[in-house]
Write a structure and sequence with these properties.
Oligomer: heterodimer
CATH topology of chain A: Spore Coat Polysaccharide Biosynthesis Protein SpsA, Chain A
CATH superfamily of chain A: Spore Coat Polysaccharide Biosynthesis Protein SpsA, Chain A
Mean pLDDT of chain B: 83
Number of domains of chain A: 1
CATH class of chain A: Alpha Beta
Order of helices and strands of chain A: EHEHEHEHEHEHHEHH
Helix content of chain B: over 70%
Mean pLDDT of chain A: 85
Strand content of chain A: 5-15%
Shape of chain B: elongated
Distance between the termini of chain A: 39 Å
Strand order of the largest sheet of chain A: 3-2-1-4-6-5-7
Order of helices and strands of chain B: HHHH
Number of domains of chain B: 1
Number of strands of chain A: 7
Largest interface: A-B, 20 and 14 residues
Number of strands of chain B: 0
Radius of gyration of chain A: 17 Å
Structural class of chain A: alpha/beta
Distance between the termini of chain B: 85 Å
Low-confidence stretches of chain A: 1-5, 246-257
Low-confidence stretches of chain B: none
């Protein structure tokens, strides 16, 4: 009975070829946050991601083509806006983020009056560490974005994020699909639009599949691209928070396009 | 002399091809305009090569042909830039359409569900 609750929560899980890990993640979500609806954004998967998600009891937003995390997330925020959800939590499909942390994100949001809460690594919780050049890249980003957002951030590339209705409205209109746009640039956009950003430390679990890269060349490429993305994001004109529309789903920008 | 004739001929062929593409709606006029201007410029230069000498003297370019080459490069770069921005526009439009299709498919899925969902599946 989600509609009986004061706040409706949607957990958005962007998924691209995640049929192996998705059922466990959805099952955990349903036991940790039973009042939440789960939306899997199937980002043009070649495998049975969509079917697996439906079978596990999630709603599915099947993108016909692969748009990347940023593209999948904007579609998810548009869904949240049109279905009039009050809160969203973005969570990775690979099992890295613990669904049991979702209430902590929401508690922090309520306690600190934040519009966006990041579930952050390197914040004293958990044992996840990055070493070497990649670590330094992430430090640079963290320091720079802490200044932009006027709060202390330790992990700017986290895909574990809670948003309230103001952030949903902003991100459904403007969520970049570029490299790091879904993490770094979206924080810049949120800060520029006057949203309050906070973080809460979470423990990351080892990924069920895939390997974290520790090659110094890839780390250097990451740093260059990250700094480039950050500079472009900072140099962009500020996008104001869109006004709430009377009928969610009619955005004013589409009429003028 | 025969070089000028062949240059003008090539330009005429390009103009005719442009008009043909425009008439059959395979190219929109916002892309054709810059090519038409370019061909026109080449026709004028081909017909009156003195223009190139005069212009390069005015601009202080020692070899007129270098002026022609560099102007040509700049124009081609501008065309590429225009195409890049158009491709970016198209990508954004594709993204919007993909989102709308996904949202509609989600609506259809929900409408097709046999019964309104209860608290437990």
């Amino acid at each position: 009975m989600p509609s009986a609750l004061p706040a409706r929560l949607l957990v958005i899980v962007p998924a691209w070829n995640e049929q192996e890990t998705l059922p466990a993640v959805i099952a955990e979500l349903r036991s940790c946050v039973p009042d939440a609806d789960v939306l899997v954004v199937d980002d043009g998967s070649m495998d049975a991601t969509g079917d697996v998600a439906r079978a596990a009891g999630a709603r599915v937003l099947p993108l016909p083509i692969n748009l990347g995390v940023g593209g999948a997330m904007r579609a998810g925020y548009r869904y949240a806006l049109r279905q009039r959800y009050d809160l969203t939590v973005q969570l990775d499909a690979d099992g890295q983020h613990n669904p049991a942390d979702v209430p902590r994100l929401l508690d922090t949001m309520a306690a600190e009056g934040a519009d966006v809460v990041i579930g952050a690594r390197f914040a004293g919780v958990g044992t996840y560490t990055a070493r070497g050049p990649r670590h330094w890249s992430m430090r640079v980003l963290a320091v720079a974005l802490s200044r932009v957002t006027h709060t202390r951030l330790t992990d700017t590339t986290s895909g574990f994020k809670a948003c309230n209705h103001r952030a949903i409205r902003l991100f459904s209109a403007n969520y970049p699909a570029e490299y790091l746009g879904d993490t770094v640039e979206s924080l810049v956009i949120a800060a520029r639009a006057g949203l309050t950003i906070r973080q809460v430390g979470v423990a990351m679990r080892p990924r069920a599949g895939g390997r974290p890269s520790h090659s110094p060349i890839r780390a250097a490429v990451f740093l260059v691209r990250a700094v480039f993305a950050l500079l472009i994001a900072l140099s962009r004109p500020t996008e104001p928070l869109p006004r709430p529309t009377i009928i969610a789903g009619d955005d004013p920008e589409e009429a003028t396009a | 002399m025969s070089l000028y004739v062949s240059v003008v001929m090539v330009c005429v062929v390009v103009v005719v091809a442009m008009i043909y593409l425009l008439r059959t709606r395979r190219i929109r006029e916002k892309y054709a305009a810059i090519w038409l201007l370019l061909t026109l410029a080449v026709v004028v230069l081909g017909a009156f090569p003195q223009l190139a000498f005069w212009l390069s003297r005015m601009l202080g370019v020692q070899t007129p042909v270098n002026l022609v080459f560099s102007v040509g490069l700049v124009v081609l770069a501008a065309v590429c830039l225009q195409l890049s921005t158009e491709v970016s526009n198209l990508e954004e439009e594709t993204r919007r359409l993909a989102e709308e299709i996904a949202l509609l498919r989600a609506d259809v899925d929900r409408a097709a569900e046999p019964a309104p969902e209860d608290d437990a599946p």
